[in-house]
Amino acid sequence: MNLEFKKELPLIGIVLVPFVYLAVIWNNLPEKVPVHWNYNGQIDRWGEKYTLIIIVFLFTIFLYVLMLIIPKIDPKKRLEVMGGKFYQLKFILLLFFSGLALIIVNISKNESLSNPGLINTLIGFLFIVLGNYFKVIQPNYFIGIRTPWTLENKEVWKSTHAFSGKLWMLGGVIIVLSGLLLSNKLLKYSLISVMVIIVIVPILFSYFKFKQIKK
User: Fold this and answer.
1) Which of 54, 136, 52, 171 is nearest to 179 (CA)?
2) What HEC string does 16-67 produce?
3) pLDDT of residue 77
4) For the segment 24-83, what is each residue's pLDDT rounded down to a tens digit?
5) Cα–chain-centroid distance for residue 163?
6) Which residues contact 127 (CB under 8 A, 6 or more apart)?
7) Mean pLDDT of the chain
8) In whole angstroms, what is the distance from residue 130 CA to residue 145 CA?
9) Ranges 6-10, 143-147, 162-166: which has the least confidence
10) Is residue 97 scored above 90 in pLDDT?
C-alpha cells in the first residue's frame, strides 16, 4: 500500500459514513421521505427514498472525485504545490458535506427539522474555516476568488485572498450567531445577505486592486 493511498483512506472513510448510516436505517424509511424544509422547519418537498442516495452521492463521492481530479487538470499546477494545505482543505470540505448528508438523512428519517438554525450554524463554521485557508490558496482556475483580475496578476490574487479570508471569517461568525440567536423568519435573510456580501465585495476588491497596481 503506497503512501498516497494511505493518505486517502481517512477521506474515503469520511465519504462512506453517510452511506453506512443510510444502509442501516434503509428498511425503516418510508417510501416517501421529506427532502426539503423551509426556514420555519416545515416540510415543503417530498421524494422517493432513493432520492437520499443521490443526495448523499453528490455530497460525498462526487465531491471527493472532483477534489481528486482538479489538481491534475489545473493548467497552472498550483494546487499540487499546496501539498498538505490542499489535503487539509479536502478533509474539511468532505467532513462538512458528509456531516451535512448525515443530518439530511437523519431528519428525513425523523420527518422533523427541530432546529432550522443548525444548518446556518454549520455553514457559518465552514465559512470561518475556509476564510482561514484563503491566504494559502495558490492562483488556480478552480478554487478561490477567480476573477479576470486575480488570474491576471499574482499580487492581486494574494491581496484579494488576504482581504477575502478575513471577510469570510467575519461573515461566518455572523452566520453562526444568527443561527444561534435569530428567529427562523430572519435566518434566511441573514444568510442571503452575508453570502451576497462575501461574494460581491471580493470581486470589487480584486478589480480596484488591479487598477491600483496598473496605475
Assistant:
1) 171
2) HHHHHHHHHHHHHCCCEEEEEECCCCCEEEEEECCHHHHHHHHHHHHHHHHH
3) 78
4) 999 888 788 776 666 665 666 777 888 888 889 999 999 999 998 988 888 877 777 776
5) 19
6) 168, 169, 171, 172, 175, 198
7) 86
8) 12
9) 6-10
10) yes
Predicted TM-score (pTM) of the model is 0.83
Is the pLDDT at 157 greater than 60, yes or no? yes
Cα(49)–Cα(35) distance, rounded to whole angstroms?
A: 9
**Integer CA distances (angstroms), 116 to 20, 105, 113, 121, 129, in order:** 25, 15, 6, 9, 21
d(CA 204, CA 105): 39
Long-range Cβ contact pairs of 81-86 (< 8 A, separation 24 or more): 81/138, 82/136, 82/137, 82/138, 85/133, 85/136
The whole-angstrom separation of Cα 89 and Cα 171 is: 19
Phi/psi at 146 (nearest 5 deg)? -100, 95
Sign of CA dihedral 102, 103, 104, 107: positive
Give the containing element (helix H, strand E) for 200: helix 184-214
